[in-house]
Specification:
This protein is of the alpha+beta class. Helices cover 49% and strands 22% of the residues. The protein has one domain (3-112): VSR Endonuclease (Endonuclease, Chain A), CATH 3.40.960. It has helices at 3-12, 16-25, 68-80, 90-95, 97-112, and strands at residues 36-41, 44-50, 55-60, 84-89. Strands 1-2-3-4 form a four-stranded mixed beta sheet, with helices on both faces. α2 (16-25) crosses α5 (97-112). The protein is globular. The mean pLDDT is 88.
Length: 113
């Protein structure tokens, strides 16, 4: 399956945490920054990306358990393209969406300076 088709499928099959975060960041709702969801970059599809700030937000659910090494390699590769990757557990997004949004906004502002 090609990356674009896979990204479209992932956008349709979002987790609850992804849906929650998307409501907070879509349509430039977070500090005026534009986010893309399930966005292909190199050989990966990232959960959320802000191209202007070169910031990637990844949400980690059960699929990421015992994948620390893979995630570290992935983060390093994305870093080669100039991106900073921040990660949040799904549970954090679901229980504290406002705090998560505040942390993302702080990272966005830091990336721009």
């Amino acid at each position: 399956m090609d990356k674009i088709a896979n990204a479209r499928r992932l956008r349709q099959d979002q987790t609850l945490a992804e849906k929650t975060l998307w409501k907070l960041v879509r349509n430039r709702r977070l500090g005026g920054f534009r986010f893309l969801r399930q966005h292909p970059i190199d050989r990966y599809i990232v959960d959320f990306a802000c191209e202007a700030a070169k910031l990637i937000v990844e949400l980690d659910g059960p699929v990421h358990d015992d994948r620390e090494e893979y995630d570290a390699r992935r983060t390093a590769t994305l870093g080669l393209f100039g991106y900073v990757v921040i990660r949040f557990p799904n549970q954090r997004v679901l229980t504290d969406p406002g705090g998560t949004a505040d942390d993302i906004l702080a990272a966005l502002r830091s990336a721009r300076s």
